[in-house]
Specification:
Three copies of one chain form a homotrimer. Chain A is mainly alpha-helical and 347 residues long. Chain A has a single domain, classed as NCX, central ion-binding region (A middle domain of Talin 1, Up-down Bundle), CATH 1.20.1420.30. Chain A is 81% helix and 1% strand. Chain A contains twelve helices and two strands. The first copy, chain A, has a two-stranded antiparallel sheet with strand order 1-2. In chain A, α5 runs antiparallel to α12 and α6 runs parallel beside α10. Chains in contact: A-B, A-C, B-C. Chains A and C meet through α6, α7 and α11 of A and α11 and α12 of C.
């Protein structure tokens, strides 16, 4: 993905724009364009470090830093009290991973190969886990929407923290599961091919610098959300559900598509479903805990996010039972994504 | 299905009834009884023409004219502004195909054979596609019902047209998929056995005449809907969800049951799921486009239709994963249909 | 499960407490503790009698008396007009069977064996049947919640009776299915190992005495529900969804876990799914019929129960497609149960 590297030029441009007090909408767009290659760089840095650290710690690093960009953006949104953006970008990451990434992978792969096969068993394990995780995450919201909305804030904070503790415990247990008791089941995705590209020192340096730059650009981005939604007439949900997840995941997404083009549909699916699981089991609880520093955020999705999440997870389960994919299946996933995006756009 | 032929006698009777100004309820019933054999005749005509036109055009004709009766009835209902009837007959066709037709096929076949097997892979492809299509079709409605109902009509028309374009594009792509890139996967249903029964000329003549007669009877039927719902105390939804789909599909349904009795459960399932797909991907978008001539209809199902549609598609997916069927499974599908019908009846 | 026998001591203690007019909360707790071993004893009695009566009648007895404890408790709750408790304990039994029992079985079994395999086909048949049953049971409720809530009571009683007749007919047909046309499919669960422990006379005596004692203790329990919910601040739903189903099923649940520890995951799953099916197809309709003696109860679950039921049945279907289980899957099921319980607790 060499083309991403050239996008690093947007970092200095965004700094200049900030310095000359350009309009917040322009800074928003520039920071989006800067974060895309930085997220890719951070991913590469993590991958390289995991090379030196051995498979166990490497797997843990890959697993935990995989969605670091979204975590950083959401942290700054949280600080600004933009709860709706934070929650919709959690939902949007899952939706984007399953519908957009899997859809694009199946379409791209399906144009090259007539039918692509994947290991049904392995994908089913992940997609069943995703079903559990989404149901667990959505139950407090589903309960909340059927009660008098005025009594929400009082008792549901406690429930959110409880759910967050359950989720992060399952995340810890699932890491133990993959790296200890059942490591044979889970080794396919992050096997390293070839040699390390960078030295350990260089890798750590790249990781640290890209993290710092992402943090700065995220603050630019978050400050620009309100002005851009107002000036363009976009709904806040659209920014959270569609835009932020795409920005944070372009690098990761392109890897999935590359894997599909190499006829490794298993890996493409594992990246997409694995990343979704991480969002729900790790990123969402961490954000709930972090929110306690500022104003406690309850993990109550709105009805649109719930509908989109549940539809997505049903589709993920249906796709994984299949064991096969073709271009038409890819297009259908993309079509559902388009319809969801259009619905959020007109909200 | 020779017994259907005798029902053609209801056509002249319905004309006489109209001529002598009989009560609209009687004309409604007579037009229902007339459409049943006409729909069968139109199906046969299409089948015969596809014999002469070769598999590609034949498959296209069969695919596109398969739900012509419902399209014609809905067109006249649309003209009269009976949007609720149109939308509920779209939902009712899918529900009837999956629960009533598959249920009756599994029951009939299961009474003859202890366990019937079908090619899981092929049926799963269709039922996954059905899941996508139903979710895509339902998302605007699901979003709508959670927003202030007063803001519906303004922005949702545009969304309906967008969804219609997406759906019909997928329909076109799926025809290309079945007749070009993956024709090996999709050949089982419409293979011709034996020779043509009629000459090409006679087939076209029958097709044209039956289409014209269906159009006339549909107008009789639509005019009678309001009087009959009033005089019998039926809900409009009951007519749309249960009655119209049955009338338009008796001939097709009987084919599915005949196939089940021949132990060709694959074909029976493909007829039912394929017909449902056609309704969603072709009939529904065409009706939305046609409605632009009169008053634009937004594709927003009511909550009952949504519940029944989503329940149906979950059942279709569950049944197809199985790969087997027996009489008890058939009865269970019929039981869910009965409960849905009873619920709409008392609305 | 010898430890359960020692709990029989709570029966005389509860009688003494009632006699000395102890606080209703204490009597509630003592009656709960008494019912647990009595339910186990009744189960054993039924099992022993089925030994003497041959497989057909034995299977019928086991099937029909399997949830007798819940039926008795619900009968007394019905008599007191505690409809919400009755309905939530129906929903809670299904939820508890699938999430708590299957979860605990998979966790216990998974700690002993790395991966446990089960016959996917057999479990899929039951879980598909469970999906149908839950959808059928929930449709009237789903319809009801979207209509004006004031018109509920008038017409929905008739619908409830209709649904009850459909459900109990399917129950009768499914018994015919298992013991007549497809008995080869369904023999795995209740095969007897070894010899009878008790004589037929003693078995009948134990069954009769335990049934009488359960009836008395159930009346104690029901009388204590209101005082205990008030004094502890628990919601009525929590008692119905979580507490009553656990009390009525401890003995049965422990059998499932014992089977999982013997690496017979098929049997563990069949016990849990079979018991859920029985609740929906037999216990729920019988309670609706019984309610006609007192005040007719409509089978309209509230939104929380619906959400929890539908989530549970989707999870059951996902788990059964898998064909494998491990400790992490068990923990995930328990986590969803915990989140549901916590949500009902704070209601």
């Amino acid at each position: 993905m060499k083309v991403l590297k050239y996008m690093l030029i947007f970092i200095p441009i965004s700094f200049v724009a900030k310095f000359i007090n350009a309009s917040p909408s322009i800074i928003f767009i520039l920071s989006c364009l800067s974060i895309i290659p930085l997220a890719g760089l951070m991913g590469e840095g993590t991958e390289e470090i995991s090379f030196y650290s051995g498979p166990k710690i490497g797997g843990f690093l890959n697993g935990t830093f995989g969605n670091a960009t979204e975590l950083i953006i959401s942290f700054f949104a949280l600080k600004e009290g933009l709860f709706e953006i934070v929650k919709s970008s959690i939902a949007g990451s899952v939706i984007g991973n399953i519908l957009l990434v899997v859809g694009a992978s199946m379409l791209a792969g399906g144009l090259k190969y007539k039918t692509q096969y994947f290991n049904q068993k392995v994908v089913e394990v992940s997609s069943t886990m995703l079903l559990f995780a989404v149901i667990g995450l959505c139950i407090p919201a589903l309960f909340t929407h059927t009660v008098n909305p005025n009594m929400l804030n009082t008792r549901y904070e406690g429930l959110s923290i409880f759910v967050a503790i359950v989720m992060i415990s399952i995340y810890a247990l699932s890491l133990f599961f993959s790296f200890s008791t059942h490591k044979d089941l889970c080794s396919s995705v992050h096997e390293h091919e070839g040699n390390a590209k960078w030295s350990l020192k260089k890798s750590i340096l790249i990781l640290v610098i890209s993290t710092i730059l992402i943090a700065i650009e995220s603050e630019f981005l978050v400050t620009g959300i309100e002005p851009i939604t107002e000036s363009l007439g976009w709904s806040e949900f659209f920014v959270g559900i569609i835009l932020i997840p795409i920005i944070g995941n372009v690098a990761e997404h392109s890897t999935a598509i590359v894997m599909a083009l190499k006829n490794k549909m298993d890996v493409a699916l594992e990246i997409a479903i694995g990343s979704s699981l991480q969002i729900i089991l790790f990123v969402a609880p961490v954000l709930i805990f972090l929110s306690l520093i500022f104003t406690p955020m309850s993990i109550v999705f709105n009805e649109f996010e719930l509908i989109a999440l549940i539809a997505t997870v049903l589709i993920a389960n249906s796709v994984s039972h299949d064991g096969e994919s073709n271009w038409l299946e890819g297009i259908q996933l993309l079509a559902v994504y388009l319809i969801i995006a259009a619905s959020f756009f007109i909200l």
